[in-house]
Amino acid sequence: MMARLWKAPWLLLVILVALVAFSYQEKRKTFVSVHEVNAIEVSVPGTLKYVTETYNKESGDLYNFRIIRILKIEKQITDHMELHIRVEMQRTTCFKTETSTCDVQRGELYKQIQCYFSVYAIPEFERYKILKKNCTDS
């Protein structure tokens, strides 16, 4: 009789440990793939537009920047899709209030930066979120 009383708490403990281990596995990203993609892939143009608009909104600069060169784009698929983007951007002649495509600055106002963006993307629904951003003068 006493042996049965000890088995019940051990069984409950084993079940609890199994549940904790299972829930931990559910929270981890399931790695599927990472590969380089080009700028014409379906998910890329909308993402590039989003990062440019977001950078310009958040920047303290009076002028808009635009992407002048794409250095590298990687698509990472886990339990969601992320795009890892490296680009060169230059300051344009357009103020932030302007939305047209403008020439890049020359002379004193010339500025070029290199940026890395990690973007959570659901392009089918035009949903994006910048997870990481790092921009430096080039």
UniProtKB/TrEMBL annotation:
It comes from the Eukaryota. Keywords: Signal. Residues 29-136 form the Cystatin domain. GO terms for cellular component: cytoplasm; nucleus; sperm flagellum; sperm head. Residues 1-25 form the signal peptide. GO terms for biological process: defense response to Gram-negative bacterium; killing of cells of another organism. The keyword Signal applies. Gene3D superfamilies: 3.10.450.10. Transmembrane segments: none annotated. One of its GO terms (molecular function) is cysteine-type endopeptidase inhibitor activity. This is Cystatin 11.
